[in-house]
Amino acid sequence: MDKQLFNQGLLEFLSQSTSSFHAVKAMSRRLSDAGFTPFTTGSDLGPGSAGVFYEQAGTLIALLPGSEPLLDSGLRMVGAHTDSPCLMVKPQPEKFDLGYLQLGIEVYGGALLNPWFDRDLSLAGRVSYQNATGSVATALVDFRDPIAVIPSLAIHLDREANKNRSVNAQTQMAPLLSLDTGEFNLRDFLREHLREQGIEVSEVLDYELCFYDTQAPAQIGLHGEFIASARLDNLLSCYTGLQALLAADGSQWSLLICNDHEEVGSRSATGAQGPMLQQFLQAVLKDHAALPLLMQRSMMISADNAHAVHPSYPDKHDERHGPMINGGPVIKVNVSQRYATSSDGAALFRLLARQEGVDVQSFAMRADMACGSTIGPITAVELGVTTLDIGVPTFAMHSIRELAGSDDAWALHRVLGAYFRQAAPLFVKSQ
What EC number(s) has UniProt assigned to this enzyme (predicted)? Predict the structure, then answer.
């Protein structure tokens, strides 16, 4: 696969992955097409076995066995997250004011709210319903068509809008769906939509739905330098890790985990602070007591987008640590362990990148500004594994439309590919 095909695949994946559930579905389909099979507790995995994958709601784990026993070789892991800041629909959302139908929302994660105004929005997620036999079942929904908008207030009615505009998520962010008589019920609407898809639904019982921008992902710029899309944070890393795993030669035990709920703290059954990865590894090992030994011989690369230095706001970065778009993947460092990078992990990444002819950048937050975090420190604490935080430089992180470089994801893919096939041990202790 060359860079052009890689980026075409990335754009297609971003378009398909309108919610964390859809991202998992899109990745599972690609894994299945490549010969991976669903993992069960009875799966007997040994050297040379076919790859397996396991999904739970918005989280996916995929494992490709290596050519040597797992405890001898250790495990090469890449982690990312499937969720992005968005507007989630409330349980009783219908609002009828002045003859308009709106839906009440709750902001998921640390979203930039202003860019959500005046966008053509659609709705995606999963629906839980009672089927014809009386059981609870779930189905994914994605309306695809623009069915909602959040109109701005005209400048004539708010002359200070360009000087000092704050947004109240409760009173100003409810998406507008239609002119309505007051009879609309979202659960009934979802039931009819599912029936149109050929699904037998007695009653919609609940849902997890998010609004999203229908503008398609695109490669833009005078020379196609940029990738513009919603959800680059962090579906770009999910896709990059997935493609690296699919291209792995099977010489090393290689694992990809894409967790849900990173944007709200990772404290969930399917989040990085939940038990899902540890339970999966214990099921693969079958000897739970062997997990600490395995982690001593393993490594996690946490891939999550990095802040590129913005030409209009250069003072927001440390002058020596301002990653450039298309300057290569970024090693993220924070001495307070908001990133889990250690010198040995960073050294290995630099070595792999050099072997692939890929430039590497560094990011450290200004000493007078607070630092964000990733699944990296959480995974390091939960598993006791050496962890490295890296990412692709990005503008407008947490906006409804973000911007990354068209060279950077491909460059990261090459380094992760080298990581998954490197024959030498990850680390050799000093004598």
Answer: 3.4.11.-
